[in-house]
Known about the structure:
2 copies of one chain form a homodimer. Chain A has helices at 56-68, 108-113, 131-148, 162-173, 179-189, 214-220; strands spanning 10-22, 27-33, 43-44, 46-49, 74-81, 92-100, 116-120, 160-161, 192-199, 207-212. By secondary structure, the first copy, chain A, is of the alpha+beta class. In chain A, the strands form 2 sheets. In chain A, strands 1, 2, 3, 4, 5, 6 and 7 form a 7-stranded mixed beta sheet that branches. A 3-stranded antiparallel beta sheet of chain A has the order 8-10-9.
Amino acid sequence: MLNGYNAEDKVLVAVDCIIFGFDNEDLKILLIKRDFEPEKGKWSLIGGFLKNQETLDDAASRILHRLTGVHNIYMEQFYAFSEVDRDPKERTVSVSYFALINIENHNKELIENYNAKWFSLSKAPKLIFDHNEMLAKAIRRLQRRASIKPIGFELLPEKFTMRQLQKLYEAILNKDLDKRNFINKINSLDILIKLKEKDMTSSTKGSFLYRFDQKKYDEKLMDNFYLKL
Amino acid sequence: MLNGYNAEDKVLVAVDCIIFGFDNEDLKILLIKRDFEPEKGKWSLIGGFLKNQETLDDAASRILHRLTGVHNIYMEQFYAFSEVDRDPKERTVSVSYFALINIENHNKELIENYNAKWFSLSKAPKLIFDHNEMLAKAIRRLQRRASIKPIGFELLPEKFTMRQLQKLYEAILNKDLDKRNFINKINSLDILIKLKEKDMTSSTKGSFLYRFDQKKYDEKLMDNFYLKL
DNA sequence: CCAAAAGTGTTATAACTACACCCATGT
DNA sequence: ACATGGGTGTAGTTATAACACTTTTGG
């Protein structure tokens, strides 16, 4: 390596992850009770520091894996927070990621060992530092993403019912949707496979299960869902 | 200050700015010819390093002001780039901002002193490091922003004609728009003030000038322009 | 036979797209 | 008188929003 930019300041770079999950009713986030100073014992997002030899994505994956035991979690970087005193201990810039995880599909013991807990969005506690601000921004980003491309399947089990999907979107967008309009809209996207099986747990009649069709989705390149001018 | 997180790695944090301008024909970006190693003499985005006692927004403002002489430039943080070897000299994480500037409204001498130059997007040269990737991402972000809220007035003089505005949107979205539909759409937003004056430079008939009405815009809280489900 | 959730279509309204001619003025 | 860019309206199409009843079956 060439000799560096000596005169410049170096700072700590943290990665904080907003982990969203869904329990068929509410949108939830995973928080940990912090076990070191400062702010020991307070609720916090899951985070860690960027190492010299990894990218931010690497760091986020590492942090998510350490807590949940799961690899290949859907995640997306969304903002760098940099108030000078945001961490009272030392100047730290934090790059935030949001992640979507199937709430059934992670290592419960790991999470318990980390003093982690799922909270409904509406019941989230006060968090350390600027983490509430991060959370608010993450929710807005998730809402936009969900309106723009059919994200969110990551939050459901592999097979799911229309009603589950609708409830998920209602939870993300924080408003009620009309059942028929929702189904028509989803069907018009033509990215789900309707299975022959039914889920019998939610009603006597049972409701058909669907799978997300990644192949069809990729073919359609659903990237331009924006309001067109 | 409490004593720090000693075991953690610190890195350099850079801020790189994609500065968009508009000359009534093309969307342009401002680039500088780099006058220090590595990659001396190559074209580059405008950047600098984050200092210990400033936020990322502060750093971006400082960098933009130093180059253009202008304060209060519209800017928006959009992504942190962190490939380990993106800067061969030293490990650097770069947080990118895009900025919109009225191309007439900056200090031309300053820009010349910095070896800076406006390039049409279609004629942008190869840039150092990962700056082409940053540029591509900035363009996509700008396009989305322009579809979502009436950004872009920042790129025009205070008084402008409908035709100028249309050309700007055509340049941003990189496609032709229908004159009548465009005007109807803009008028339906009801955020412009039609002035009595005409601009006589572009035609014999002259065309009416408009101003952006910040107050009306704020009242309307035009934040939910997204595809609704 | 009834409670509980699933499933299914139509109509009214709003938004978007495509499209062509006249106007004003300087040269 | 003509060349140049400015200005204007409508009709067809598509997307969205509002709305209520029937089906299934376990208890």
